[in-house]
Write a structure and sequence with these properties.
Elements (H helix, E strand, L loop, with lengths): L2 H10 L9 H24 L7 E5 L6 H15 L7 E5 L6 H9 L6 E6 L1 H7 L9 E16 L8 H10 L5 E5 L5 H12 L8 E5 L2 H9 L5 E5 H9 L4 E5 L25 E9 L4 H15 L2 H10 L1 E6 L1 H21 L7
Parallel strand pairs: 1-2, 1-3, 5-6, 5-7
Antiparallel strand pairs: 3-9, 4-7, 4-8, 4-9, 4-10
Amino acid sequence: MSRDCEMATDVVHGRYANEAGPIRLLVAALGFFALLGQSANATAAEWKPEKFVEIVVSTPPGNGPDRTARVMQGILQEKKYVEVPINIGNKVGGGSVVAYTYLNSRPPDGHTLMIASKALLTNHIAGRGPSYTEFTPLAHLFAEYMVVAVKPDSSIASGKDLVERVKKNPQSVSFGVATSLGNPIHQSMATPLRAEGVDIKSLRNVVFNAGSASMAAMMGGHIDVVAVTAAMGVQLIANKQVRLLAATSPKRLHGALAEVPTWRDLGYDAVVSQWRGVVGPKGMSEAQIAFWERTLKRMTEAEEWARDLDKNFWSAEFMGAREMRKYMDRDSVALRVFLGDLGLTDKK
C-alpha cells in the first residue's frame, strides 16, 4: 500500500491528526477512498454465476427454442465459458405465457435465463402475457425462417393453390398454429393471404402447444396445413413426412431447401422471420448483464455455433443488451400494426 493510503488509513482511525497538514490529509483520504471504489468496481465487474444456471424454454424437448437452449448449453459448458452446471427447464403452456410467468417469479440474480422470441411481443399485444419491458434483455442471437407444409398426399398442390383455395372459401382449409395466434408461425401462413385480400379472422385456425403437436395433427388428417421452422422442415422432408409449399425467407434457402419456392417467388410479398434471443428477470444488475452479454457473444463466435447456424438455417444477428432493447421497441410497434389488422390486439 502507498504511503498516502497508509496515512489515510491512520487518519480514519484518528492517528497522525497533528503530523500532516490539511492538504496532505485530504489528498491521502481521497486516494484511500478512490482505492476502495476501484476495488468495489472490480468486484462488480468480475461477477459470474455461483450456482447452477437454468435456461427456460417455452416448448417441449425437440422444438425450436429447446434446440437453441441445448446448443447453448453444450457450447457454454464444453468451452467452459460458464463453469457451473446448466439445466434446461421446459415450461410448456399458454403460448409461452407459462414460461414467461415462471421467469418473472425468479429472483434477478443472474442464474435464470430464457430463450425469448417474438411470442414475448405478440402475446402481450394480444393481451395474453407480460410485456417485454418486464424482463432484462441480454442478447439477440439470430433470426430464422419458416416453411409451410402439407401431407405428401395432400390435394393442395402448391403455395399458389393454397392461396387460391382460401380466397374462394376461407373455411375450406384448416391451419395448425403453434403456439399462439399472431406469432410468426401464424404470420407465415396469414401474410400472403392477407396480401391477397383474404379476411384473416375468418380462417380455420387450430392452436397447439408445440410445432410437433401441430405436425402430428396434420399427419393424422385432423388439419390441412402447418408452418414449422426451416430446420424442422428439413427433418420432415428427409423422412418424406411432408411436402413443402413455400418458405418465408426473402430469398431461397440453401441445401435441402433450395428447391422450395419463397412466397415472393410465387408472387406474394410475404417475408416472415422469427428471432431468438436471451432474456432474464427484471432487475438484473449491470455486472450480471455484462457477464451474459460478453459470454453469449463469445458463444456465437465459436465454430460449433456457426455449424449449427448453417445446419438449422439460422441467420446470425447478434445484438447486445441495449441494442436488443431498441430492436424489441421497434418490432413491438410494427407487430401492433400487423396484429391490429388481424383483429388480434388487446381491446382493453
